């Protein structure tokens, strides 16, 4: 077992690593090299969200899936090649919506015109996510910039690193805590399900034998998913009360049996997470504060800076 000096050394090395990585980041990282960066993201995001209102939720989920696997390094944006099956083609990622990828492509195109070879795809995704969350009513938070993009993206690395609604709840918790997120942060982040939707395949099998659903809600869901699997595109809003608004209704729904996914129900049923669900259901400000802080933390999770990554010219292909 490591003794106190070894532990201290380990701690100092870890702190130094964190310091060195984060010290290369800055809120105004592009102030000189690409002064219109934030404005271009804002413009692209606004246009896209107005024409395709599902973009906000889609982008938030893409960002979450990128960060959880090896850090926020835009590896989820890479397309597969003849030699490599990329993260994006892992089955859990097949439902990531095209609108989110399209948004990044548009922003990148505009940025390459304004300041070629300067802005990373991972910074674009991080800032676009922040802008979209606040556009649909969620909290605004600061995003450190200066990430570089990673060229390794393998579908075979995905399984077990992203939560699935069918997973044992302790396994879901472990996915977050093993990355340094507390239970409270996990619950706050899960509040992302206040927007967006889920395909019937993600919850249909629970509808008939899960007692956590409100009965009428379960019947309505059975009806909505009647034609699945014939029509695999069938989907339902995650938050049936205010599906397009980022608020704390998702947490208010859970005690009433109005959660959609098995994992949503578990957040309320498990005594380890229930107190946080109750707290956020009662206090939207607290939810916003905690969600913002947890997103700031997620946004720098496992990121690469300097020569550990690259600035990709196209976000879907390595240079
Ligand atoms: C706690 C464990 C979680 C599980 C098991 C889970 C699972 C899922 C599933 C199955 C869907 C439906 C996808 C589809 O059918 O297209 C979904 C949607 C979504 N998830 Fe999660 N998720 C979790 C946590 C999170 C977190 C932490 C975030 C973000 C910080 C997030 C953001 C979203 C968003 C925004 C959507 C809607 C996507 C859209 O409308 O396109 N999820 N999630």
TrEMBL record:
It comes from the Eukaryota. Pfam families: peroxidase. Heme b binds at residue 193. GO terms for cellular component: extracellular region. Ca(2+) 2 binds at residues 194, 239, 242, 247. Gene3D superfamilies: 1.10.520.10, Peroxidase, domain 2. Its EC number is 1.11.1.7. Residues 1-23 form the signal peptide. Ca(2+) 1 binds at residues 66, 71, 73, 75, 87. The active site is at 65 (proton acceptor). It is found in: Secreted. Its cofactor is heme b; Ca(2+). GO terms for biological process: hydrogen peroxide catabolic process; response to oxidative stress. InterPro entries: Haem_peroxidase (IPR002016), Haem_peroxidase_sf (IPR010255), Peroxidase_pln (IPR000823), Peroxidases_AS (IPR019794), Peroxidases_heam-ligand_BS (IPR019793), Secretory_peroxidase (IPR033905). Its main location: secreted. Keywords: Calcium, Disulfide bond, Heme, Hydrogen peroxide, Iron, Metal-binding, Oxidoreductase, Peroxidase, Secreted, Signal. One of its GO terms (molecular function) is heme binding. Residues 24-319 form the Plant heme peroxidase family profile domain. Binds 1 heme b (iron(II)-protoporphyrin IX) group per subunit. Disulfide bonds join 34-115, 67-72, 121-315, 200-225. PANTHER family: PEROXIDASE 31 (PTHR31517:SF11), PTHR31517. Belongs to the peroxidase family. Classical plant (class III) peroxidase subfamily. This is Peroxidase.
